[in-house]
Amino acid sequence: xxxxxxxxxxxxxxxxxxxxVAALNNPAVAKVEYxxxxxxxxxxxxxxxxxxxxxxxxxxxxxxxxxxxxxxxxLYGASAASTSLIxxxxxxxxxxxxxxxxKSLDVILQQLNHHLTLRSFFVGYKxxxxxxxxxxxxxxxxxxxxxxxxxxxxxxxxxRWFNHISAxxxxxxxxxxLAKAAESTKTAKxxxxxxxxxxxxxxxxxxxxxxxxxxxxxxxxIGHAKAxxxxxxxxxxxxxxxxxxFDDTNPSKEKEEYEHSxxxxxxxxxxxxxxxxxxxxxxxxxxxxxxxxxxxxxxxxDTTGQEQMRAERMDGIASQCRDLSVEENxxxxxxxxxxxxxxxxxxxxxxxxxxxxxKALRDPVIYRCNxxxxxxxxxxxxxxxxxxxxCPVVDSLEGVTHALRTDEYHDRNPQYQWxxxxxxxxxxxxxxxxxxxxxxxxxxxRKLTWFxxxxxxxxxxxxxxxxxxxxxxxxxxxxxxxxxxxxQGASTNYITLEWDKLWAVNRKQIDPIAPRHTAVEGLNxxxxxxxxxxxYNLKEVPRHKKNEALGNKRTAYGPTLWMDxxxxxxxxxxxxxxxMDWGNAFxxxxxxxxxxxxxxxxxxxxxEGDFKKTKKKLTWLADxxxxxxxxxxxxxxxxxxxxxxxxxxxxxxxTPVSEFKTQAVADGNVAxxxxxxIIQFERKGYYIVDAVxxxxxxxxxxxxxxxxxxxxxxxxxxxxMTEQKDAKDAxxxxxxxxxxxxxxxxxxxxxKAKAAAHAAASKPAPSWTGPGPKPEEIxxxxxxxxxxxxxxxxxxxxKADADQVKEAVDELLSLKKQLPIRIEALQSLAAAASAAAxxxxx
Length: 842
Ligand SMILES: *[C@@H]1O[C@H](CO)[C@@H](O)[C@H](O)[C@H]1NC(C)=O
Ligand SMILES: *[C@@H]1O[C@H](CO)[C@@H](O)[C@H](O)[C@H]1NC(C)=O
Ligand SMILES: *[C@@H]1O[C@H](CO)[C@@H](O)[C@H](O)[C@H]1NC(C)=O
Ligand SMILES: *[C@@H]1O[C@H](CO)[C@@H](O)[C@H](O)[C@H]1NC(C)=O
Fold this sequence. Notes:
By secondary structure, this protein is α/β, with parallel strands linked by helices.
């Protein structure tokens, strides 16, 4: 059976194969599969590919010939002469497909028209592949379409013939299917949001069996989570079964430790691992199947060295061992099994193809020797099947009905099918989904191991890692992960995803259930003395204003408060502000030291004041025995490059500092939280308790990204020149005391504002429209411009020499150029900061 894969968004749709398959109307011979792409990347960007029995073809003419030859029918002529004639027209159709030039096409069209003068069909008295080939090529040709529409310059016979073929029933069927495929993908959303409603073909209620086959050689990452959760989703949806199978075919890579950790990881995402299977349970059967292949001349033992084998496969050269006799192969395979000196030099290869365009079919290796003891079979085996053989065999033996694979395996699907077919195994449907990959994120086991081995992370559960334990530790909930993965659904668009949507989904999940707490940054925290306040006292207040089910917490009130330095810096004397969850107050006095650091504030309670009328809603903590110390952790990506390539040197891409610790004090209720609890520190963000306080060590909480730009931008990556510049300006501002940025968002830390400034796209905006008065830096620059303008005018009045005037004018221009850039930088900083401030809504 052949599958014709069509790139349904191709500029020139390959209509002929579609029509031919419809004309044969025999799924046992060929069927069409549509892919929602413009070209088939896996087949050298062809618009059509035929995959059958270990063969891949990508030219329309070869595909048409393959289909008609592999099936007895009357479309390919009744005699050698007519068949040859048909071939000639098939070749001609290929010229039409390639022709974008009116003149050369016109010559062909005139010839075709002439040929049809006394004929209804190109060859013989009925439709043949020649007609289908030419019709398909013409239909896809833009020049021809135009001529057909206008009737201009189009030969009458050719036009009549074209309409006649277009009216054939099989053409209508083929086109209808193409239209259906286009319609069904129209509803598919973006890559992050595939169709929610995902289905399997041939899925019967109660009979679907899926499987998740991790190799026990590492910790599971978010990509594995996608596979596991999709498999579970289908098993549940069809009331079937999910098999968790350890693919333990390589003793060199596996460690028992990993089996335990994978089971734990799966439990974390809600997958039952009380029953698991092992590929090693099937070693005896797989061995028997290998013997079958050898006996049928479909596998051979190869002694070719690895390097040479790679080169031969690359160049499509047959191995010198390819044609050994069955007896010799059986003998060699036994030597492999016995691990004799000679046996160890061999590997078993499936005899599929030497030079198929699909390299996965070039005689893949299916058994290899390995002397290491196996965790479960000990020393029984000295050779092990490879994944490519073991997977289809065990899938079939275990009753798997639907095998989910990422599209990275697309090229290996024909190989999988070859094993099923040639071993007479039960068929398994392959369902492809797109591999998950994220910006600034490493997924490769090798690279992650490097970070662990170098001690650059705290372990496999580091919050910066994309491992399941890492992301859960960072505060992602299981529910959010599941929702996100099902949102992507069946999308097979392979792209690198931003992290924002995932964290935004998470925020939606946690916001309604995260109790509200308060923290004040320890560095330069400000003592605020409040007159009119009662003595220190505790009150019960709800943990979450909109979710009573979360119960109450204690809030301490008193005459002495602690507040964030960043907030106090913005206060003005006699300003009315709101102390959140308390009431209004007037600021009566602000003390600053020589560096401008606020060292004390006096306020007067004004509880009658209307909180709707104040601009600043401030968080505070009453000084007293309730307060607890906490460490607030925030993280950056481990690497500074969005998309890492295989050849990238990790060492060049490391983010210099990717862990940030802020010491803070928090309300006393925080002391009662447990590890894993998720809360919100008002106006700061969502946090997950990573460690409770022990002895003198304060509790540690990790900031959970909320999906907003500032929380997911790389804080270190110098992405573009503008962004670099913004960051530099932001830094300068910060060193100077950040008057402008902080005005808009007092509680946002410099690091965050900086990251936000990276992300805020700058637009030319030459006059200040930001909040509050012009920042002093701009005022200063404007003054300089005015002064320089005066100077230029003066020089001109004085008729100074040309060079001198030019120099002054250049200086003036350069100052003028700086103005919009500075304004822009400050504005984007302020805008980003105020956006970030919005996220800490009251
Ligand atoms: C296919 O197209 C992509 C994108 O245009 C290109 O990067 C790639 O090299 C092409 N592959 C082949 C085999 O031509
Ligand atoms: C499939 O390939 C096998 C081995 O190459 C060959 O014997 C068989 O005839 C092929 N079948 C078809 C339908 O081409
Ligand atoms: C048509 O174009 C394709 C790709 O551009 C090329 O591979 C093929 O050889 C061309 N065929 C003919 C007949 O010119
Ligand atoms: C493999 O080992 C078995 C059992 O020791 C022995 O009978 C057989 O002759 C060996 N075969 C080869 C080819 O070495």
